[in-house]
Amino acid sequence: MEAKPRPDALPLPTIRRYPVYLRAVRARRARGEANVSSAALAAELGLDPVLVRKDLAMSGVAGKPRVGHSSAALEAALEAALGWDNVSDAALVGAGSLGRALLGYRGFREQGLSIAVAFDGDPALDGLEIRGVRVRPMKDLVRLVRRLSLRLGILTVPEEAAQACADLLVAAGVRGIWNFAPVQLDVPPGVVVQNMDLAQSLAVLSHSLETAAIPSPARARRP
Amino acid sequence: MEAKPRPDALPLPTIRRYPVYLRAVRARRARGEANVSSAALAAELGLDPVLVRKDLAMSGVAGKPRVGHSSAALEAALEAALGWDNVSDAALVGAGSLGRALLGYRGFREQGLSIAVAFDGDPALDGLEIRGVRVRPMKDLVRLVRRLSLRLGILTVPEEAAQACADLLVAAGVRGIWNFAPVQLDVPPGVVVQNMDLAQSLAVLSHSLETAAIPSPARARRP
DNA sequence: CTCAATACGATATAAAAATATCGATATAAA
DNA sequence: TTTATATCGATATTTTTATATCGTATTGAG
Q1: Longest CA span, chain A
Q2: Interior CA angle at A61 toward A55 and A63, to 5°?
Q3: Which of A195, B9, B99, B205 has a C-alpha 20 to 30 A away from that of B197?
Q4: Is residue B105 within 8 Å of residue B89, measured between CB atoms?
Q5: Which chain A residue is nearest to residue B42, measuring alpha carbons?
Q6: A91: part of which helix (H) or strand (E)?
Q7: CB of B220 within 8 A of CB of A192?
Q8: pLDDT in tens, B77-91
Q9: pTM of the model
Q10: Which residues fall within 8 angstroms of residue B5, CB to CB, at 6 or more apart?
């Protein structure tokens, strides 16, 4: 129970880099490149070649010396590792400006994500269709999410409402919450929360600006 | 007041946690708590108490046993470390749905950020005022940004346009770019780029969901 | 006034991640 | 063929980050 048998033990930083690799691989494949070398990827992305090689090796696809990795195999393996190989439907809670921006983002399809339904507490929005997605009142949330068997919730409500909405999503049976509100959500075990905090990202940037010309840890410039 | 011999050698993860601490401290101070203990913060945020104590210690404010840290001093120190103590003006490039969402986000003020002007390539938007911010055509970017001495650019354009817009911002003299486009920007040394990549965040979430009920590395369950 | 409990500070250990190094192998050029 | 070289794969080292432990100071209760 407390043992970790072996649940795809990919390091977290590696997972975070996978979407970046995936985009680059897709672009190269679209350009007709049948093979991709870790060195070329590293150069393109400004990363250490050894790091890229190790990350790619963990995806399970082997590379051939002097050739690289099969770009088709790589793409499939990265998608599988991320769980992006089959589209999963999500519920969006909060149809404010941020919620609408997400509804309008086409890139989600390439990331195995599709927003099936949206909810908002504002009665004025009830029934409205935004980018092909219908907005429903909050009182229908639990019932609808459960009926559609949605496993993922996207939370784009003001921070005061965040915890209450999270509770509803949990009650409806979602297993993951993508949280855009700057709040630490309290959820039962088994439910995964991933925070998307603008402030955290901005913090790194403004601190870097403050401390003048330090060699930025996020980006290395080298010849 | 002078308790800061070493201005800036903060670890990156610490910086990322600072906004979280800052929010909690502000909330407690608003509730009238003159002092905050690291243990209480740790409990509230689900973090290890030792970690919080170390992070706070690095801000330079000392705490007193049995009492905690002065919440006013903490707030000031955290803001200073983040460079959020004085508001800096930014230019937003790309007044699409995401750009508008950011324009409408009031929280930026508390994070020392104010959007002074927006730019968009769509002539239809020229002259429009969104949330009190005027939208200007791209051709005016370099001139206007330079005249306003803006040091920060926020990039919310489609990925095809991202690099070109970044080049304009650099030409206009910005020192930092907050990049919402899923592209690795190429900028000269001295310019800091902070990527805000939805895909990277989503990756962690969907991978966690895939690998079922592993003890999530991102969140610890507290009592 | 004494004592116990709380919370800080410092040091030590462990875990995780990034980086460096070396050898092996397949391809392309000579 | 032979040889040079790009590239993978594995191991080792260093660096960074997180956790654990201990000591000490301050407060509040008895």
Answers
A1: 62
A2: 90
A3: B9
A4: no
A5: A184
A6: strand A88-93
A7: no
A8: 999 999 999 999 999
A9: 0.91
A10: none
